[in-house]
Inverse folding.
């Protein structure tokens, strides 16, 4: 009888053991993925905060600079700079707050005493990845300075996105801005098209700082891209 029970129980225990191993493996794998997702979300939130603070407080960006002290006031932004940026950076982020890991677009709203939007301006990336890996929307209060006697309340809101389009464009822009040679290992789920200073995935496009030569398309798959800067252009090989 004991022998028969042992004959029956051993296969059952083996099956149970296999099931438990599979369960714990997938649980660990799932928790690792969730942890990485949370880390990326925290990265995006931190990046959104940093970009907004740089835009609002850097004299290279939107911060109002007092002519006497030659210093900037916290979160007071110049209407002249707002209008300049909204005209100059209609399709890409300004260099003063460019992130090479993410893409972003900012909307600045002037608000009246009743909380209604009186006027708004926007600048930054025109398009984002069709399949976004992460996205964060965040805002901070600002004061919009028209002149010394006319400072109006407002808010500056940012949409910041992480995806394939932002990652590859950031790589090219980093090479362009630093004027160096770099490599990147990428895994693409969609085809990438490149035409001079524009990169597109699924008809979503980004303007680049430099023209790209040597390649005009990257098919989906895994690659190691090499990019080198020379005379205002980037030469790319895979």
């Amino acid at each position: 009888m004991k022998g028969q029970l042992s004959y029956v129980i051993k296969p059952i225990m083996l099956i149970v053991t296999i099931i438990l191993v599979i369960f714990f493996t997938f649980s660990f794998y799932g928790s690792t993925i969730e942890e990485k997702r949370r880390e990326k979300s925290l990265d995006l939130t931190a990046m959104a905060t940093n970009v907004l603070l740089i835009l609002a407080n850097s004299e290279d960006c939107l911060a109002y600079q007092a002519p006497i002290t030659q210093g900037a006031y916290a979160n007071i932004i110049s209407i002249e700079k707002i209008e300049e940026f909204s005209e100059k950076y209609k399709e890409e982020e300004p260099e003063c707050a460019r992130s090479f890991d993410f893409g972003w677009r900012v909307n600045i709203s002037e608000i009246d005493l009743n909380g209604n939007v009186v006027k708004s301006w926007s600048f930054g990336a025109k398009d984002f990845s069709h399949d976004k890996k992460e996205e964060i929307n965040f805002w901070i209060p600002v004061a919009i300075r028209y002149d010394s006697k006319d400072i109006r309340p407002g808010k500056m809101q940012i949409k910041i996105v992480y995806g394939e389009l932002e990652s590859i464009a950031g790589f090219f822009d980093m090479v362009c801005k630093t004027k160096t040679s770099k490599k990147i290992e990428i895994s693409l789920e969609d085809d990438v098209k490149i035409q001079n200073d524009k990169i597109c995935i699924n008809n979503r496009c980004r303007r680049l700082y430099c023209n790209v030569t040597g390649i005009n398309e990257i098919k989906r798959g895994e690659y190691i891209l090499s990019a080198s800067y020379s005379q205002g252009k980037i030469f790319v090989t895979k």
Observations:
- The helical segments are 2-57, 79-88, 164-178.
- The chain has three helices and twelve strands.
